[in-house]
Design goal:
The protein is mainly beta and about 140 residues long. It is built from one helix and eight strands. A hairpin with a 4-residue loop joins β5 (about 85-90) and β6.
């Protein structure tokens, strides 16, 4: 594995379980044990009832493109080999929205409503990034 040059997340108390899940190639979201609401991004309180009684549940990993943009100008030299690339908001089957790259498709083939599924990029020993790829028909 070559050294990864792009910025990487730093797991925190609230996000550690999420990043441990991606390392196992599992996409986890939080679910409130009190009211049943699911939420993403990870945080210490339920956004519906303010409970701290949260659990981690496995997402199906399937969703649809809600919105997207294509990046043509790299934000730093580390991204130059990737342009053009797509950053999208994915509406997951569970009802939460996640941001991620759409890979495995040419940027001009990405469309709002396109079904996608999570894929994982192992970038180093501690971080695995979730990305999304068009679902096979």
């Amino acid at each position: 594995m070559t050294e990864y040059q792009k910025p990487l997340p730093t797991p925190t108390y609230d996000t550690r379980a999420f990043w441990e899940g991606t390392k196992r190639h599992e996409l986890l979201i939080q679910k409130c044990r009190d009211c049943g609401k699911v939420q993403f991004y990870p945080r210490g309180l339920c956004t519906a009832c303010m409970s701290t009684n949260l659990d981690w549940v496995r997402s199906s990993g399937r969703g649809t493109v809600y919105s997207f943009t294509t990046v043509y100008r790299p934000p730093s030299p580390a991204f130059t080999p990737d342009v053009p690339y797509v950053i999208a908001i994915i509406e997951m089957e569970e009802g939460v929205r996640m941001m991620g790259n759409v890979v495995g498709s040419l940027p001009d083939q990405v469309k709002v409503g396109m079904p996608v599924t999570v894929v994982f990029e192992d970038v180093n020993e501690t971080i695995t990034l979730p990305k999304f790829s068009p679902e096979a028909k």
